[in-house]
Specification:
- 2 copies of one chain form a homodimer.
- The mean pLDDT of chain A is 94.
- Chain A has helices spanning 10-40, 46-65, 73-83, 96-108.
- The first copy, chain A, starts with 9 loop residues before the first helix and ends with a helix.
- Chain A has one domain (10-108).
- Chain A has 4 helices and no strands.
- Chain A is an all-alpha fold.
- The A-B interface holds A 24-25, 28, 31-32, 35-36, 39, 42, 45, 48-49, 51-52, 55-56, 59 and B 24-25, 28, 31-32, 35-36, 39, 42, 45, 48-49, 51-52, 55-56, 59.
């Protein structure tokens, strides 16, 4: 199966949506924790702009990454699995060939 | 005296620099306090992006406002006085006509 002709049945779409949302929440949780840590250390004026730079960078990556088009989803999941925001168990219930492709995409990048 | 032909003697330049820096520190202090307040209330993921929007907005205003060119300084001081980041006592030692112009610019805008 190529990632270009992958089909998602209704049950898989539900699993994919939940996995996608969970990964997003995990990543946002990381960003919130990092933000709180930076604020706790905030002293110099210029650190305010470092925090702004940090958020700009994370936001642009998040915006770019969380693309819920079915044509992109295996690539997105591969990346999220590699980065640790998606766990293998989140994919449980997807077809074996999809899981295999996601794992292979996750190790390729 | 027009703001176009204003001259700054060395003593005034020193006072102006100190006043400018003090206003900047006050404004950054405000931003830091607002940031800490927002972080204390941080719950939903989307609030992270509200904080980012807040910092983007303040940064662009600060970058635009703190222009230390002598040709701009009376206008800058007028605005900072109006906004409360500059205090009248910070201007002590500048010529009377400069103070008068700054005050008039501060009430005009």
């Amino acid at each position: 199966m190529s990632i270009l002709d992958v089909k998602w049945d209704p049950k898989e779409k539900k699993i994919a949506r939940a996995a996608f949302d969970k990964a997003y929440q995990r990543e946002m949780g990381d960003i919130k924790a990092a933000l709180r840590e930076q604020i706790a250390k905030l002293k110099d004026d210029e650190m305010v702009w470092s925090i702004h730079n940090y958020l700009s960078d994370r936001r642009s990556k998040v915006d770019n990454k969380y693309d819920y088009r079915y044509s992109q989803l295996l690539l997105v999941f591969g990346r999220l699995l590699k980065e640790g925001y998606l766990k293998e168990e989140d994919l449980f219930g997807l077809s074996d060939d999809k899981i295999k492709l996601i794992k292979s995409l996750s190790s390729n990048k």
